[in-house]
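User: Predict the complex.
Assistant: Input components as received:
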Amino acid sequence: MDGGQRAALVRLDQEVEAPGPAPASGGPGRFLERAAPEGLRFDYATGRTMASHEPKLVCRGVWKIFGAGGKSLIGTASRPTSADLRAAGAVGAVRDVNIEVREGEIFVIMGLSGSGKSTLVRCLSRLIEPTSGDILFNGENLLAASEARMIEIRRHQMGMVFQHFALLPHLTVLANVAFPLEIQGIERAAREERARRMIDLVGLAGKETAFPRELSGGQQQRVGIARSLAVEPELWFLDEPFSALDPLIRREMQDEFLRLQSVLKKTIVFITHDFDEAIRLADRIAIMKDGEIVQAGTPEDLVLNPATPYVAEFTRSVARAKVVKVASLMRPLNGVLPPASIRAAAPIAEAAPLFSAGNEALAVLDGAGKPVGLIDRAAVVDVMMRG
Amino acid sequence: MSASFPFLQPVSEPIPENPSIATARARWLWPAALAAFVLFWQFGDGLAKWAFSYPRAFEIPAARWIGKATKWLLDEASFGLFTFTDLTRFVAQIIDLPYRVALGLLSTGLLSGQGSSAVQQVPPLSWLAVLAIVALIGHHAGGVRLAALVTACFGFLVLFGQWTSAMVTLASIVVAVPIGVVVGLLLGLAAWRWPVFERVLVPVLDLMQTIPVFAYLVPVLVFFGFGPTSAIVATLIYALPPMARVTILAMRSVPSEIRDLGNMVGCSRRQMTWKIMVPSAKDSLMVGVNQVIMLSLNMVIIASMIGAGGLGFDVLAALRRLDIGAGLEAGLAIVALAVALDRLSQAYAEKAGKPAAGIPAGNGFVSRHPYLAAALAIIVVTFIAGLAVPALQSFPEAWQVSTGTFWSEVVRWININFFDALEAIRNVILLNLLVPLKRLLADLPWAGVVALLALAGYRLGGLRLALLVGVLAFLIAATGQWEKATVTVYLCGVSVVFACLIGVPLGILAAERDRLWRWLQLVIDTLQTLPSFVYLMPVVMLFRVGDFTAMIAVVAYAVVPAIRYTVLGLHRVDPRVVEAGRAMGCTPRQILTKIKLKLALPEILLGLNQTIMFALSMLVITALVGTRDLGQEVYIALTKADTGRGIVAGLSIAFIAIIADRLISAGANRIRERVS
């Protein structure tokens, strides 16, 4: 763990020096964030305004129908209902899905078991052949790509983490992490060197020679994460990565995941059946039901404006104060700045304690630390009271 | 409220449609059919003579066809570039070369010259060298304890003068097992990758496993000639199917996520197979390897009929001389080999599952390959020592021990003192049970029996099963095998009844008593590892040749699954149900009869099924002690190298096995559906 933290810090420093969309806040801020990993997310969330809006992955009208004659079903009716499909003896696992995943964002697909989310993510990487639709990755239609081209893309541009880890039992941690590189034909010294860096990054230094069955579930998933990162993918799929873990470990791994993402800035498609996990991690969430996307938007959108009763059912128990951002209750600046301040991307719950010192309003700062507005005690109390 | 508490609502019994009519029909169907059958049997003789003995004019000359086809394959068949004979010669070459090497190393030494004029240039590995190397392998696979065990097993071979034969047998095993494993693995992989191939392969594997071994000895003999090569081919046919099956299953059971992983990291097809699938399935594949070893050893004696030599030949020869001591020792030598190889392969399987130890430090050859270096050192040292002291090269006869005379004395003593009693038992059972039953079965009209079987098939599994059972039974009659088949069925049936009468109660007793079960397990494991021929010898010594002897040998062999499945079924009964029974105040007897046995019935039926299969496979072997059934027919065909006759009789046995298997499985399934 210690080694991993240190390694991550080294990487952080490199990132600061590196050009490009550097993290917004300056040196002192970084220390704060390290103390409270939760902070990183919000730092990142402001970064969202800085990350390019270019879609990395676009999914247009994707269908996956299991059973005979799937293709003809879509050809005849413009949009077969699930009853149509059932009558034809087919199952619509993914039905007319349209999503856009932007560069550098965490896009969570949330749905209960059987909702088609795992099928959808496998369609995105063409592990499962979609029945119809377009999947554009960096503008290239994956469904038109040849098998050889797909192998090339998967080898160098995609990584995937699996629910049950999918570690190869006969290989050591080091060999497991180096495995994708071995498949690419990279020679042993080079691939092991890179694998060691990844193992450090996920905080497993010292476990290189262990075998998967000697590790705990959380450690095994760290290996899975390191392995998926070894090829330095642009697009990172995580298929219910923490669902098989105990609740406490799950929480720890979520923090770890946010820490990694704050460093790595991958484009992420994250699958989960746990709405709380989705809220905690997502920049944007798509909720799936019976193969369809019911609603897609930021956690705030979903909580404040659920599109259907089905979505409302999920959001009902979510504390609004933890989702609603300061920015959405902000009013314009008027002259005097209050002494206390809060970041625009912080949730209301974080603002509440600052009012205990007798402040009636807080200054709201943008990602760069510049004041952009004010937030009143009354507005915060209102949200807090509604739970 | 009630919607959220569905368990509060009374559970309604599923009501069968029209229960009264259905049960009434079922109740009358069998008595009616049986009555019709008996009437036809008693009075139909004059009406339809054809139904009692199949008319010769309509017989299917399958034996002649197969004989002709074999001849055609041998003389004319050609695949364009090469003929069928070229193909068999090529296969023989592939097997022959490694066999020569293994045999040279273990038994004959390096020879120059041909045939009997051959001169030994370099002696083979001495007994001491083999013993030391085996110990080394044991240590590598499983530490000191395993090393001690396998050394003891091989030491037994040395001490009891079985060494020379054992090494010949070991040489053929050493060749057969890797070929069987590799071919089985490749077949399994092909079946996994191409479903079409699987659809062809699986029925062939089924047939390979139901046809008695003797039946395909004949064509193997015809195609490959008499000698160790054809013995290895026969061994392969017998030992390969489980490997292919295990491979298919193992590939299927690799988690789909692992396959997804392979695709996600961009594996090519070859990388997918060899870097992802096969290593991930290694644990299950090792089970297959173990199976191949054990089945190869099972074949040792039978293979010696077509020239394998070695221990199998010794057993067979002893059986023919009725020399119980020699036969028993050679048989035990096979068991010793089997135990050593079984434990070694299991230890390696376990090791494959565990993480390997770290790569030892050091760069020298010795430190990197300590075991290999030690083995080489042993070979050199024992070679020199063997030249200096001949006793170290080949174990001196004076040091050998034999219990042969002891066993012969025991049997003689029993015969002198108990001959009358044994003879009385034999005669009572033979005259009062076996002979009347045999006559009765031979007397039944074949057409009626076929009809009854088809009816049973219809009741248990619908039209398809009825058709299958009916056609198979008809084919037995139509190829002129009916009379011999009735003998097979009668012997098998009587043996199975006895085996169940002994096995099921024993199983019921053992299921409740852990200590008894542990002892019983030891006994039945030994019974199963002992080569089946070994059973025959003491029985023949005591009861002479004939049906009664065959029956006892079959019962001894077939009682094992009856016990095993009964215990398994009873152990599997849900303890909560038993607890519920106890809570209702059932007596232990009621728990057994009203709960446990009812729930274990499907398993016990499966045990019955296995008992029948075991009995049939043993029955073929008892042809050696003079039964007059299909097994004898196969055996005669073997001695005459008559392919057609052998295969037709062998297929008839397979048909009997298939009919029994499908009917019982269908019955077990119906019961299971009702129970769960």
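Residues 1-19, 357-361 of chain B have pLDDT under 50 and may be disordered.
Let me know if you want any component modeled separately.
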